[in-house]
Structure formats: structure tokens, C-alpha cells
Amino acid sequence: MPNKAKIKGTRVENELANLLWDMGYAVVRGPSSGAGVRRRFQPDLVAVKAGKVLVFEVKTYKGGGPLYIPRHQVEGLRDFAERAGALAFIAVRIHGGGWRLHRLEELPSTRGGGARVDEPSTGLRPRDLDEILFPTSRRITEYL
Question: Is 84 helix (H, G, I), strand (E, B) or coil?
Fold first, then answer.
């Protein structure tokens, strides 16, 4: 019998991968996404665009308080990002509300060494992040 949580996780990871792909990123989904990998951590997604590397741990959220990220995922994502020269994010699929991205380095730590997303619905939308990394609008000073 298939594991419903794993199927749901794969579905939301693919959803974000497709969204990033449509935004012009080259995207790879980790085949094991951390499960069963002992020696090295694999993030859920790696996305690359114009030399910028982003790594994601993907979570779903229905509401009702903070979202907690386990220590092994935080440490693994941080280590992978450092090795790749990447920006690390916790990507949260809000039930009925789209995607929000949270920089790992900006999240508070828990006593157990994990991380906490206090307000999962307040992070950056993927298009907002793309605009920050690759601005398409011009500053007013460019016209003066």
C-alpha cells in the first residue's frame, strides 16, 4: 500500500519544481529527498538560474502555529548550501494559499538544533524572490 505522506510530498515537490522551471530555473528534484541517505544530505530541490544556486527543503502547512524543521534537515540543508555556494530556503506550500519561501539563515533555532518558521504564510512568494535575485524593473535613478 502506497505511503500517502510520501505521495503528497512528491506531488508538492514536483509542483514547486514545475513553478521554478516555468520561471526559467533549471531544477532537479532529489531522488531520495533525504530519506535513507546516511552519509550525505540531499535537499528536496536544487534550482539554478544565471549562476545563482538555490536549495530547498519543501514542507506543507495547513495552519495552526509555527512550523518546525528537524535538526538533521536544517544541518543537512545548511551544509549542502555551503558546499554549493547556494542560498538555502524552507519552501512552504500553504494549504489553499500558494507558496512561501523562508531563508534558512533568517529562521530562529529551536532548543534541539532545528529551526522554526513562526509565520509560514508571511514568507516571500517565488516571483518576489525571483525579482529580488534578478530585477526586471528599473530604478528611477536610471532615468535621470
Answer: helix
In the structure, what pLDDT confidence band is assigned to residue 38 with cuts at 50, 70 and 90?
low
Q: Of residues 33, 109, 121, 137, which has the active-site annotation? A: 33
Cα–Cα distances (Å) from 67 to 48, 54, 60, 63, 120, in that order, read 26, 21, 9, 9, 7
SS3 60: strand
Question: Is 109 labeled as catalytic in the residue annotation?
Answer: no
Domain annotation for the chain: domains and CATH numbers: 4-142 (3.40.1350.10)
pTM of structure: 0.86
Q: What pLDDT digit, counting tens, does each position of 43-88 carry?
A: 999 999 999 999 999 999 998 899 999 999 999 999 999 999 999 9
Closest CA to 110 of 61, 60, 68: 68
